[in-house]
Amino acid sequence: MSPRLIALLLAGFLAVLGLATPAVAAPVQTLTWTAGDSTTAYASAPTGALPGETTIVFENSEATGNTTGMSHTLTFDTSTPGYNHDVSLNVLANPFDPQNGRHEAVVTLTPGKYRYFCTIPGHTAMVGEFVVSDGGGGDTTAPEVTASVAGDRDPSGNYLGSATVTLSATDAGSGVASVEYQLDGGTWTAYSAPVVVNAVGMHMLHYRATDVAGNTSEEGMAHFTIVQGQGDTTPPTVTAAITGQQDPSGNYVDVATVKLTATDADSAVASVEYQLDGGAWTAYTAPVAVTGAGEHMVHFRATDTAGNTSPEGMSHFTVVKSDTTPPVVTVSVGGTKDDAGNYVGKATVTVVASDTGSGVAAVEYQVDGGAWTAYAAPVPVTAVGAHTVGYRARDVAGNTSAPASVSFTVVAGGDTTAPLVSIAVSGKQTGDWSYLGQATVTLTATDAESGVASVEYKVDSGAWTRYTAPVVVSALGAHTVGARATDVAGNGSLEVFGAFTVVTATPPPDACPVSDTRETVVIGGVDSQVENIDIGNGCTLNDVIDENAEYASHDRFVQHVKAVTQELVGNGVLSSGDRNRIVTAAIESDIGGGAAADRGRDVKKAL
């Protein structure tokens, strides 16, 4: 029996004894979240609400698009600054749980902004927020909502193959909180994207909208008929044109404008999207101006009303700033000198370039009139004799500095061995080796001959910086740290790198405050011999298997165990071998329905 059901039974028992609190009015509103197979976003979520007592509905079921038995949580953030922290909500839902994935909770909301997320490992992209209005500022006017139906039509006005219904709602007062539609007398459904209807026959779509102040519009309706189409299976054709002022190298000066054009000879274009530099896919409505200096890549695609999506196209281009000034380049030569000023054993040439306009694009050097070579690190020169090292730089706008040079002489002898440098990262870690709140980077360099002269580090894409003490990195996310050292003789070490991740110092809420902590996974008395580990959110393997819940049949229970353990294997929490042992134990058990359910309740009481 689930803790929620036990709580409800206890509340009913107290009510019989006259000890329960008096009945209160029903919550002023219901907010609904749904989830499916995606691990990057909830299927639907509210964006606004009113203050007061509220029913929270979280459904993660086959009806909401979950076809794999994947678990999700709906958890309210109670620690991140800038959000309300007065609601503690942490709901774990699975299509095969006793509630078939649909859970309800009653909370009290206050004006402000709430943040919510999923605590399941690997689902961290499932996050969002909604705003609780103070009541709408006296708003008593319902939103205005309209519908448009699009698609190919025959001479009688019928839609060929499919029709796409687009809803649009506006509210000049407190703002639109939700838009819903009902197709052919079915259930009211939250509207999040144009609705494609392809069933042949007559259809009626009702629609309505509610604002943040709670005003709901009158129901509108759109009726249309779909007839058998021609079977459009050809995706649209989409092209990109890049325009703007270009320099002699073909770079776009200050701004490049991307214009997309899509055509479809059969069912017509329904939508066009683009993705800039690996960002999110965005609906294309007008030419896109790109002003950031540097190289860019735009991907694009289009979908027709029959649902065919074109292959992704792509175009790349470079934007430079209005810049006619070449970079400034300086050089320094390091190493051990003799009394005559010659470098003993080796000279190390360091080139530094800067550009306040479009930025440095490349730095080059040449040794003794040889080929120009891309400069990436200090250049050691060990050949005995007189040398001349030339250097120059080019900025993103194509301006190149005048070549300059430095001359010196290397004589025999001296230290020619570079130092050794190592990186150590320390701090409090999570189960997946991420660092909580911050990580401390400590560098160590040794040189057995002339001794270490300097140690440098860089974090991510930052500049090389002289190392004097351990470096604390507190920015959340993945990081790369580099290290290098130079000895007194001017020998530079190889650059070494390390990677680590910093996560929030506040651990996610425990999804299972009351856990089954048996040492191994035991199902209906069958010991799988698999360690009963915490899966990463406070729940153990025994918790998510939930052998004492109600199941319609033994096969339904085994199906639940297979789905849960497969997800854990996919998240790297469980090995395939351990999963097989757990599934075998489930099959050998008699959990699920009838007498097995009664036995499960007896076990629950015994525990």
TrEMBL record:
Gene3D superfamilies recorded: Cupredoxins - blue copper proteins, Immunoglobulins
GO terms classed as biological process: carbohydrate metabolic process
InterPro entries cross-referenced by the UniProt entry: BlueCu_1_BS, Cupredoxin, Ig-like_fold, Ig-like_OmpL47-like, Ig_E-set
Keyword Oxidoreductase recorded: no
Keywords for this protein: Copper, Metal-binding, Signal
Signal peptide segment: 1-25
Protein name as it appears in the record: Copper-binding protein
